[in-house]
Amino acid sequence: MYQAGWGKQDIGITPRGYAMMGYGMWHHRARQQQSALYARAFFLADDKGSALIFCCLDLGYVTHAMRSAVCAELREKMGPAFREEAFVLTCTHTHSGPGGCSHDALYNVVTPGFVPDHVDHIVAACVAAILQAHSSAAPTGLSLLQGDFDAAVPVAWNRSLRAYNRNPDVMPRSDTETHLALSRVMQVLGFRRNGELKSLLSLFGVHATCVSSQQKKHDGDNKGYAAAHAEQMLQAAGSPDAVAIFAQATAGDVSPHYHGPGEVARRQKIKGEAEYAYARRNGEYQSERALSLLQSGQEEKISGGIDAVFSYVDFTALKADARYANGNEEAFTSDPCHGVAFFTGTPVDGPGMPKALGFVVRKLARALQKRRLDNPGKYSVADQAYYRRLYAAQSPKAILLEAGRKQILGQSLDKLMLPDFADPLVKEMKRQARLGAINKSALVPTVLPLQIIRIGQIAMVCCPGEFTTTAGQRVIDTVREELHALGIQQVLICTYCNDYMGYVTTREEYQEQAYEGGHTIFGQWTLAAFQTRFADLARQLRKPEAERTHDRRTQPRPAPAEELALRSNLPISG
Description:
There is one protein chain. The chain contains 15 helices and 27 strands. By secondary structure, it is an alpha+beta fold. It has one domain (about 1-310, about 445-545). The radius of gyration is 23 Å and the shape is globular. The termini are far apart.
């Protein structure tokens, strides 16, 4: 029996015309609110007082700005009851939530800029929900259930089938079987008091992109509707304070929209208010599956101690263990780069740059790579070495944006030849660069949080960013192998945790250079680097607390205050 409590708080951000976070489109601005956005939290403690906190936000991303501010508040308000390594901050990844919440520059350009008021509201809601969860803790039983969605339930499809089929560890699927090219398993933790179900936490990977970039309202999308539906059902059954969290697992290549023959035409039939109805129904599928599992009587009761390990790791020059890198002894990550495929988007969930322009830009990127590698005399010795490392890590990506050196096709952002009228995002990025607002600031996070939590006989790997189906499964397998000796019977995965930096594909998927590979910013060995470091962290979890030696000092470098001020509270336009 554990001490457990739960809480929920409306985030309360008023739509004022800032762009939403998710699609990266200038026109995707919040003017109204369709459904409320919440912070939902669980507090869980074992019989020795070791505790963890799990908080999920109806937002598109979690940022270090959010997490660090919440941690500071909780240290002050909860004292020793709060342990940062045992605090999970995640999100539903709705694409209809507020943007402007990162100190890093790139994902804020569309907003435009950093919006401190948004972060303040998010932090306040997190803290309120967590304190409510903490204060309501009472003896509670915890159980784990899992089961597949029936193949006929239209809840999810793989949106990057050719990349998926490259993996040797999957069953290849045809274009009429995209609904099977993913993990259809939902895992649910049930919280019971006196034998009655009171709250739940679901893990299932599917993008919260039922609502398109054409809509202008804040909305929780499918995960938000799933939570609302489950809470409504639990309240009707006699649990008036029920909290239901529907968090993400391996959603990177998983869409809530049909993918297959005629996919674009089918998607175009769902417009306007119908998109919200579609999101609601998708969420109900998830809620109904979670509740049916919890009522099946097939649960595995969870018992045992709570523990956690947490570490920040710089991903810009990591060497991957050869066993995770196809035997390659020289498998390294590099500075972050975004490929042309990132900017061309996905054909159904979020189209981006027109194909014709993408073709031209890809040719320019290839020409730049050839010039850099075939004409070493034009560059310094240091630059020659840098480019060799960069392209060894990033190939076959056609690099458009070098986020590390802040260049587009080899040109610094403030000197781009592309005219301002070509794209409002380019115009704003150039304006900020010329203003000196991003000279020393990171465009994207590069020092990333890795976390593993243990609850009795289960463990949960908490990953930043978006992991594809197979990438996530390989991480699970890696950690399971390391924790088997600890008595761990099941390893779960939760993504979008603690910060956001983009995608993680397998190396095989990366070669396809679909959208997900183009947004895997540290290169083809990114997954292998994650496996290496999660394996290291799992080995630390096997040790007694006093004997653990993992890095607890490294932290992301703060953005220069003067630069952050230059790109904060910018005028709303568009």
